[in-house]
Structure formats: C-alpha cells, structure tokens
Fold:
Amino acid sequence: MSLSTLPQSPVLAGWQGQGVRWDEACLQKLRLTPQEKRALTAVEANPIDYTLNNSEDAAAICRIVLKVLSESNASGPSSRVSRLSGSLSQIEARQMLTADPMGVSCHYAVSKLCDIVLCLKEKKAGSAVTIGSTFYSDGNLIDEWRALLRVLHLGGSGDAFAQRGAAYCLASILMAACPSQQSGARTKEHDCSSRSAEEPLQALISWITSQLQSSSSLSLSLVTPTLIALMSCPEARIVFSNSGGIGYLSRHLRNPRAGHKSTVTVQQMYELCFCLWALTYEC
Structure:
C-alpha cells in the first residue's frame, strides 16, 4: 500500500497540451495583461523543466499563476467546476470554460502550481532554480502566497481539488524556509527566512486541524497529502503536535461507537498511522 497522491483536475482536458483558451471577457476578469497571457501560452508550449530553467523566469511565471488563482477565486468557489467529481472529456471541459471560466481558471492555476512545485522538488542539490529562489524574494516569502491560503478558506462547499492542491503547494513552499530542509551552502539567491514562513505555516496547520475535527472521509482526503508531506519536516511536526494534532489523528483511528459506522477508509487509516509514526520523532 502506498501513500496518497494528488488527483488530477476534472477539467484537465480543457487545457492539456495547449493551455486555456481564455476569451477577452475572462482575461479582463483575471486582469491578465497581453504579456502575461503570452507567458502562460509559452509555458504550455514547452516542457515544465524548460520553463523552470531560469530563476527569474520561474519566479515571474509563478507570480502570474498565483495572480490567476487569486483573481479566479475573488467571488468564492465556482458555481460548477467546484462540484465536479468525475473527469470531463476534452469537449466537455472546453464547454465548461464557457459555462464557468473562473472555475476552470482556478483549477488550471492549482494544477500548474502543483507541476511547478513537484518539478522544483525533484531538482538536484545545488540547482540555480529552487523553491526558495522562486517563491522567496530577498529571503522573504512573496506576498502572492496568500492566494493559496484564501483557496483553503473558500466559502460554501469549497472546492476539493483546489483546496487539496493549494494546501500541498503551500506546505512545500513553506517547508523550504525551515532550517531542517536547507542543506549545503546558503547563497543570497537561495536564502529563505524561516521567520517569514512561521505564521503562514501555523495558519496552514490550523486549517489542517480544523479539517481533522470532522469525521468526514472527504475532509480527511483534503489534508492527507499535505499532512504526509509536512511530516518530513521537524518544525512542522512540532507545530502540528502543539496544535493538538495527535489527538485529532487518534480520534479517527479509534473504533466507532456502537451503532456508528466509521467513514475512514483503509487507505486513510494507513496514512494516519504513518503520520502518527512520524510524529514519534518529536514527541
């Protein structure tokens, strides 16, 4: 049995291989300039490794994608895309771009950020382009990170795909500033201030613990990929433990009361046990 991975967006077929075909009305809502639109088009035309080959280009494209994420969620969760469960065909996904352009834009931004984060995490030590050089400026976390936190707190029924992906991306970005995750010589370009990530990390873990208070299997699925990632970071383990995280995990692993059926799946129980095991390194 393996740990959970991030699922794909149900509207992925709408932009895969060619990017999102935004119309002028959508571009105005997203406040994208012609230059920013061309930059996003170029991202889709080239492998992600090529896009992230230059630190300045990588930082610029991430700011644009975070801008798309921020603007697409300005009015809360989308009316249609956020409620989708199964994957749509290419034709259906393109039709959804007309019916719910902000919803598709949100999923595009989260998907692209996940691709970027995963690519940066796989780069070899000493690479000129890192999560630190991309999401931190002069050692401080860029202000655009707040778009990810806002996705976690979408009103209504939320957006499971966007929240799951945004949480994972935010965790990966914040862990890059933790001293335990920084190895080798630290140059000015790669230096990340742990202080700038302290409050965002606490906010992320507070959201995770709020989801763990629910007995719903869906709430668990929102946080398990992120929680598993955080368990590799001693600083995150300490914050999670101090936030009562161990108790929340234990509740999900207890036998349900008589007459009540547990909603936790076997996979989720395995993942929660892994997290508890990882926490023994600090507690």
In short: DSSP finds 14 helices and two strands in the chain. The mean pLDDT is 87. The beta strands are 136-137, 140-141.
